Amino acid sequence: QVHLVESGGGLVQAGGSLRLSCAASGGTFSRYTMGWFRQAPGKEREFAAAIAWSAANTYYADSVKGRFTISRDNAKNTAYLQMNSLKAEDTAVYYCAAVNRGVYFSPSYYDYWGQGTQVTVSS
User: Fold this and answer.
1) Cα–Cα distance between 54 and 52 in angstroms, integer?
2) Would you tell me which of 43, 52, 112, 123 could form a disulfide with 98, CB atoms 3.0–4.6 Å apart?
3) Helices and strands (H, E) in the chain, number of each type
4) Is 63 exposed, middle or buried (0-12, 13-18, 19+ CB in 10 A)?
5) How far is 100 from 83, CA to CA, in rounded Å?
6) pLDDT digits over 39-83, tens only?
7) Phi and psi angles of residue 109, each rounded to the nearest 5 degrees, phi first
8) pLDDT (tens digit per residue) in 81-99
9) What radius of gyration do the chain's Cα atoms show?
């Protein structure tokens, strides 16, 4: 059983930056693909970024490509999402998730989820 805790959300002006962290416990972190998803009010949860267990491969939604960077530190059992050039449409609750097989863009494949952290971008 993997326990995930996100942090780093907050209120930021458009054009600003935030760095989200996802601390994992209870499992072998280095075996898991980590994903970041987001959910805006009234919308479905959507894929933002994912990183393979070795960090050799990263994947991004078109809407965040070039602005967000996903990374991980397996020694610290932590995944990160650096968000730059934030836009009002990035406002959402951001969730980290883990899966121990493959890399997936659909939230239905992920086994473990954090509680989410709110990101609000003011225009």
Assistant:
1) 6
2) 112
3) 0, 11
4) middle
5) 25
6) 999 999 999 999 998 888 999 999 999 999 999 999 999 999 999
7) -85, -15
8) 999 999 999 999 999 999 9
9) 13
